[in-house]
Structure formats: structure tokens, C-alpha cells
Design brief:
By secondary structure, this protein is α/β, with parallel strands linked by helices. It has two domains: 34-159 and 283-331, Periplasmic binding protein-like II (D-Maltodextrin-Binding Protein, domain 2, 3-Layer(aba) Sandwich), CATH 3.40.190; 160-281 and 333-354, D-Maltodextrin-Binding Protein, domain 2, CATH 3.40.190. The chain is 44% helix and 18% strand. Helix 3 (44-58) crosses helix 11 and helix 11 packs across helix 12 (308-316). The longest helix is centred in the N-terminal third of the chain and has 23 residues, at 7-29. The termini are far apart.
């Protein structure tokens, strides 16, 4: 003979099922984007407290980044000391590989990242594929307009400043080029070295020269003349820096200011200058993943990196932050132009202009 469970147990089970159903419905209905929008409307103190409460429940944050492993570990260590209830994970890869992984995971609906830090050209591609969420951080007020996405999907948290590097034993101070036209002097023929894939610099320089010379045609004509200087091509800026310090060549028009500064501190015979007072910068974007399952933890980490405290860590690990009130001392006084993006067209244009007759 079958026995029925007491009516009170049936009622309790029914209530529990209903509660679970409505919790699941409300949870799915309130998307990460809606949560971030609600948080953005709160007053600063209330906002931070809300993020902490939510992050405490989530308990984890996954960061996909191109940042060097040691640098990333230092950032996460400082962050976790501040918020020890969050378990942080870092996945690191090159721009291209990280972009491919993000797109593949997003397409499958299994993107594990909560926060993404990536450079060009992948950053704009991911934005256009709707892989970034909109988020308005209160720390954005401390950043220049060029460091903010006009649509609100990313912040430029760090940058690579591109300058002219030279060997101080081979190039006298009075000879140092100060304009792009100076690179066309006979003095520098076969004495210039460029990375074999300098697409960010190329696009930035095109932008500078188009504005300076008055048209894209004139900017393109400049690079045709630069190609006649027969520059050397090497693969990778680490090698270029070593060869510059060793005197294998005299000039490198697309080297990194922060790397050259470190070399100078070790006694290497290198220095740098800025052509036409304009530093080209390659941006690195910070964004929250559209598939984040932990929006509170994501926003808390996002705000931390952009804060004064987070920026201090970036400076400690020798990165170049973009926060205006904590800008890198040696870059002050120069104008900057960010490289927005580039694609196959710009790559082909560089190769057609600069690599004629060379193996690619």
C-alpha cells in the first residue's frame, strides 16, 4: 500500500520549486549588462560596497590578458591582498592567439573570461563582434578622452609609446633626426632598422604624415622615399634593441620609449627622440566580457586597475599607464596620437611600399 507524504511536505516542496524557478528566471533575466548599468548609477561609496558584496558571493575572477606573466602576477597579487575573498585566475597569450581563443569560446557560448586585456588589432575586432560589455567606471574621469571608448566598451589602461631610438656612440646629438623628413637624409641610408611587422607604427606614422603633409597620397609618397633608404628589417623588438645597443645600426624609428629608458639605466649607449613632437602610441584595451558570469568581480577588478592604486602597480612592473594624473614623467610635454586599428589593407600597403624586392 502506497503512502502519501504529508500535505505540509508537499506544500514545502512546491514552494521550494517555485522559489528556485523564480530565482533562476530573475537571475537569467537580469543580465550582466543590466547589473553593470545599475551599479553605474549608484553613488561612489554605495557602488563600491555593492561590488564587494556581489564579488564576495561570486568568489572568482578570470582575466584573459597579453600582459607578461610576471607583471600580471604582481597585479593580481596586489589585487588579491585587497580583496582576499576573490580567487583570481590569469590566462596569458599573445594578441593574436588570445584574440583567436576569445572568438572561438564566444562563438561556442563558453567564454571563460570575466575581464579582457588585449591590444590592437584584436581589441577593435572583439568590440565589433559584441564581445565587450558597456561599463562606466568612476575612475574614467582621470583619463584623457583618447583613452576612453566613445561608446563605453573599453578603457585604454596602458600603452606602448613608439619613438625614434638611436645609438649615442654612433649618432652625435646635433645629428639626431627631429622630423620624419630628417630620416630621408643621405646620412641614414642603410643605417636604419625596422621591425619586420611594424604595422602599428606604420599606421600611426601615416596618420601623422597625412595631417602634416595635407593628404594621404603625400604620406604614401613619403614611405616610398623611406624605402629607398634601404632600411634593415629584423624580427622582434628585443633583437632590435640588442642590435642598436651593439652598434649594428644607428637608428630605429619605431622602438619603445620605456624599453629604451630601461636600457639607458643599465648603461647601454642608447637614447631616444620624438619625431615632429608626436609620440605614436599602441593602445592596450581593458574590457568586461559579454559572457561574464561574475559581473561584480569583473567590475571590481576593472576599477582597481584604473585606480591610482592599480596604476602604481603598473608603474612598479614597468608598464606605461594612461591615467592622466599619474602619467610617465619622461613622456610629459609631448603630443600623442593613438593607433585606432589596422587590418589586411594596411598590412598590404606597408609591404607594397616598404618591402619591394625583399623576401617577406
Amino acid at each position: 500500500m502506497k503512502t502519501r507524504p504529508p500535505r505540509s511536505l508537499l506544500s514545502l516542496a512546491a514552494i521550494c520549486c517555485m522559489e528556485l524557478f523564480f530565482w533562476a528566471q530573475s537571475s537569467s533575466a537580469q543580465s550582466a549588462q543590466e547589473i553593470l548599468a545599475q551599479i553605474s548609477r549608484l553613488a561612489p561609496q554605495e557602488r563600491t560596497q555593492k561590488l564587494i558584496e556581489g564579488a564576495r558571493k561570486e568568489g572568482q575572477m578570470v582575466w584573459y590578458t597579453t600582459t607578461n606573466i610576471d607583471q600580471g602576477a604582481k597585479i593580481l597579487k596586489t589585487y588579491q591582498a585587497k580583496y582576499p575573498f576573490i580567487q583570481d585566475k590569469q590566462y596569458r597569450a599573445s594578441n593574436e592567439k588570445l584574440g583567436q581563443r576569445i572568438i572561438q569560446e564566444a562563438r561556442a557560448g563558453k567564454l571563460e573570461a570575466d575581464v579582457i586585456a588585449i591590444g590592437i588589432p584584436e581589441g577593435p575586432i572583439l568590440k565589433n563582434r559584441n564581445i565587450f560589455l558597456k561599463y562606466s567606471s568612476p575612475e574614467a574621469n582621470a583619463y584623457a578622452d583618447f583613452a576612453k571608448d566613445p561608446d563605453g566598451y573599453w578603457m585604454m589602461w596602458q600603452m606602448i609609446p613608439i619613438v625614434l631610438g638611436y645609438n649615442t656612440k654612433l649618432v652625435h646629438q646635433g645629428e639626431v633626426p627631429r622630423t620624419y623628413e630628417d630620416l630621408l637624409k643621405p646620412r641614414w641610408k642603410k643605417n636604419i632598422a625596422i621591425d619586420s611587422q611594424p604595422y602599428g607604427w606604420f599606421v600611426g606614422a601615416l596618420k601623422v604624415l597625412e595631417k602634416k603633409l595635407g593628404s594621404q597620397e603625400k604620406a604614401i609618397a613619403y614611405f616610398e622615399k623611406l624605402a629607398q633608404q634601404e632600411p634593415q628589417y629584423r624580427s622582434g623588438h628585443t633583437l632590435l634593441n640588442q642590435l642598436l645597443a651593439a652598434g649594428e645600426f644607428e637608428l630605429g624609428p619605431e622602438l619603445r620609449a620605456h624599453t629604451l629608458e630601461r636600457l639607458k639605466q643599465t648603461g647601454a649607449p642608447v637614447d631616444w627622440a620624438v619625431l615632429d613632437n608626436m609620440i605614436i602610441i599602441q593602445p592596450h584595451y581593458l574590457a568586461i566580457s559579454t559572457q561574464t558570469a561574475r559581473p561584480y568581480s569583473a567590475a571590481l577588478f576593472f576599477d582597481f586597475i584604473l585606480s591610482r592604486e592599480g596604476t602604481n602597480v603598473l608603474r612598479e612592473v614597468r608598464m606605461v599607464p594612461t591615467r592622466s594624473d599619474m602619467s610617465t614623467e619622461y613622456l610629459r610635454g609631448y603630443n600623442v596620437t593613438p593607433v585606432d586599428s589596422y587590418g589586411e589593407r594596411e598590412v598590404k600597403l606597408f609591404r607594397d611600399l616598404m618591402l619591394k624586392g625583399q623576401s617577406r
